[in-house]
Amino acid sequence: MHPLVNHLRESLLAGDVETTRDSNYSNAASFAEGRDGYLFGLPPLKTWTHAEVLAVMAERVGIDPDPGRATGTDVIDPHKTIRALERMRDRLRLAAQRKERVIVASGHPAGIIEVHMAVAAALKAAGCTLLQPAAGTPFARPGKYDGREFPLAVRYIGGVAVGAQGVIALWHTHSPDGMRAMLAELEQAGEAMPDLVVADHGFAGAAAAAGLDVVSFADSNDPALFIGEAEGRVSVAVPIDDNVQPQDYWPVSAFLLDGVVGATV
Prior knowledge:
Layout: H1 3-10, H2 21-32, H3 50-60, H4 78-98, E1 101-104, H5 113-125, E2 129-130, E3 138-139, E4 152-157, E5 160-165, E6 169-171, H6 177-188, E7 196-200, H7 201-209, E8 214-218, H8 223-230, E9 236-239, H9 250-256
Parallel strand pairs: 1-2, 1-7, 7-8, 8-9
Antiparallel strand pairs: 3-4, 4-5, 5-6
Helix pairs in contact: 3-8, 5-9, 6-7
């Protein structure tokens, strides 16, 4: 057994995760229906039925493939998590070797951002250019988390773009509009697009929709990036619970950054 499997199971990052079957099932249905908040700014290239979305999630994440079961518990296969982490690690090593231009972004400022910050620090130390465009630029938050009157703005924490409510708070967000603003500023300034984007949620989806090379993390109830991977538009989608205690991601960061020059995890 791979040494990381036990940690993934014990920390509920994979295995019997806290994300419920109801959430996996209903979010897959919402994606199939084309509901904006579940597309992450990456509308699929074709129409996917609910059953087809569940089949992709079973193949790439390890959830129960039964299209007739809508309630109860569900799983992320930790072996699938590790294989995806290995593919992401290969891409990060290449970025370090090439000293690429990179954007790192997360819609999870209280969870898996721990991995994003470790990645950002390692790539910067390896000589990559860590891009931070559109700092302070406001953006909308369409879809599932509508209802709040205030906008968010792009803010960088440890080199990682997040959605912030001014100087008051950082917010969980699925919105693709932050990444859209970031790429628009680069374009308007006549700067080259990033060679690589390391992100999740709408930050990853919008980058993939723009044709950029994207490696990402996604939970079992976030089908958009796995469908994007199946369509060849997302290079890597790592199945993992993306919002547990930040310190539980440290072994994941260490595994992911093994061999990446500059890693200090």
